[in-house]
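Example record for the data management plan.
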Amino acid sequence: METVDVDRSDADYRAWLKEAVRKVQADANRSADTHLLRFPLPAEWGIDLYLKDESTHPTGSLKHRLARSLFLYGLCNGWIRPGKPVIEASSGSTAVSEAYFAALIGIPFIAVMARTTSPAKIDLIEFHGGSCHLVDDPSEVYEVSARLADETGGHYMDQFTYAERATDWRGNNNIAESIFHQLRLEPHPEPAWIVATAGTGGTSATIARYVRYQQYDTRICVADPENSCFFEGWAANDAHATCERGSRIEGIGRPRMEPSFVPGAIDRMMKVPDAASVAAVRVLERVLGKKAGASSGTGLWSALKIVGQMRAAGERGSVVTLICDPGDRYLDKYYSDAWLAGQGLDIAPYQHALESFLAGNHWSA
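Corresponding structural encoding:
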């Protein structure tokens, strides 16, 4: 009987693949780790708050880590091919980072995003050589991305499905391993809480799995903005939870429970008003002199609430949250009083509550 033999290897493709993987890995090798900043709190509280500043990545956000992992995953799976576009459904920052990596390996990139995405993010995607396909309804980004991939013969990256599996959560210098390494000489090197926010859910899944794998006692809290279904789906154990409107806090919050969000790994969730998120980044700028996107404010608000609860209980320890991306992408939104007024957001009560707490009073929000 004759042996059936199908050989799909191609010398030119294999050479291209090896070079593409090398270029993506070399980017990580060139990049220093991001800083872990101390957020000043009264010393007598005995509680330390740290912010992992992911805005210092080459493409300006924590999505740089994700995009690198997704490209390596897609390349090694044989999904990303020479000359064919990568298409992504994104609220902006992931698309900026993926446009960078697509240009690095010499392939086209198309971002499918809501028309309300900040112009600064659109400009950054185009700066890195990508193109933007804008849709009026944010819930359409998935379907449109898949359709464009079919029409072009490209690859739909689908961060909302693959974020949690593309990243090596056991280590390999992921964000969790980096945090614990940087804390090793601090007074409380094993934090009581790490607070993350969720867009894909990949970051919270990576941190939570790493903590369990390393047998730490650290607990994971996910802060969710308005117009996002993660909190409701987690609380009700409903994998099919949805909400009708898109999030005003770019980069986090989703209208459906994304496949990369891993509810079982999360210890606690908080629902944070959008006005509180914006108030928190305004306070962050005053305290550290850094502008950050409002997703960072969502996490900071929740982290400070946890600090307040630890203080009230007489607990000492440390808490960590993230600076997700820089605020200069949102000058016309979260740093614009006119935009806040147009959205009907009053940040004054939340800003007052934060300032009062940092002045030494008990948490009252």
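Summary line stored alongside the record: The chain has a mean pLDDT of 94.
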